[in-house]
Amino acid sequence: MTGAAEQQRINGITVEELSVIFRLPEGDVCAVDSVSTHFPEGKITGLIGESGCGKSVLGLALLGLLPPYASVAGEMYLDGSPLTPETARKRLGTEIGLIPQSPSDSLNPARTVSAQLQEALLPLKLGRKQRMMKARELLSAFGFPEPERILRAYPHELSGGMQQRVLCAAGAACSPRWILADEPTKGLDRDLRSQVRETLLSLREHGVKSMLVITHDLPLARSLCDTMAVMYAGQVLELGSGILEKPLHPYTRSFLAALPENGFQSMPGVAPKAGERLPGCPFAPRCPIAVPRCHQERPPACSPEPGKTVRCFQYV
Ligand SMILES: Nc1ncnc2c1ncn2[C@@H]1O[C@H](COP(=O)(O)OP(=O)(O)O)[C@@H](O)[C@H]1O
Ligand SMILES: [Mg+2]
What we know:
Layout: H1 3-10, E1 12-24, E2 27-40, E3 44-48, H2 55-63, E4 70-78, E5 81-82, H3 85-91, E6 96-99, H4 103-106, H5 113-121, H6 128-141, H7 147-152, H8 160-172, E7 178-182, H9 190-203, E8 210-214, H10 218-224, E9 227-232, E10 235-240, H11 250-257, H12 292-296, E11 308-310
Parallel strand pairs: 3-8, 3-9, 6-7, 7-8
Antiparallel strand pairs: 1-2, 1-4, 4-5, 9-10, 10-11
Helix pairs in contact: 5-6, 5-8, 8-9
This protein binds adenosine-5'-diphosphate and magnesium ion.
């Protein structure tokens, strides 16, 4: 690898052979299955894939926020230094900010916006007065013309879009270099989705240069993300730029063909059940071009085009 390529690999979030298994009374659920991937610094990466494929669990692993009964194997790095659950939690807010899924579940209904923003500002160790000032500044920066009124408000007094902007302000409160946003447009109508997109883009003006955006919303991903990672059954099957325009993995092709704008061409078969770990490619049972090898061995990461990584034997 050249020096520049090596540096590019170091700068950002790197995941090596990461697995997350939930040990449940009814059996193990492997939510993330030997994922090796890199989310580059300075870019907005979209993490896409069907519901239940492990996107949120991967995000929570990076933040050290998995429940204690999750067993985690493999390694994670931020700019080359190891992210363990302990170091990740120390960096939460200050280096990696979180915009969690679902504002209505993430904001505390019993506490004012002021209390919740001030809590997000705690790592900065400011005095009370300075913290209040910073909270006001944050709300103005995130498009609230009357920050005083919003600070006094409880979440239920705000619209869904306003709640989402408060969460963005809280995630960006300590000026992290990274933001991880989990389904930031889920359940929002079209106008609010476009507001969220603008708010996420405005994070860049607030010094957040790198983002990982977990989303179902492909128009959002298309207009916001520089690069994308496609997950299926706990694995990242395709990674790179231009994925929506030119998908290379048969799963990504089927996933895109099943979208309403592409005529709902449904994918045959069903995704592996949670906990089911196939020896080969997880998409092989549904893949129109699978060969016997696909059922037996995991395809290696291939790079059929510069800047793209695909796990499929057709490119080996
Ligand atoms: N806290 C948990 N305990 C047990 N299983 C979980 C937990 N969180 C997620 N899972 C399981 O892990 C798998 C991946 O979930 P998740 O990452 O939330 O999917 P998504 O891609 O929709 O974000 C699913 O099968 C889900 O049921
Ligand atoms: Mg999720």
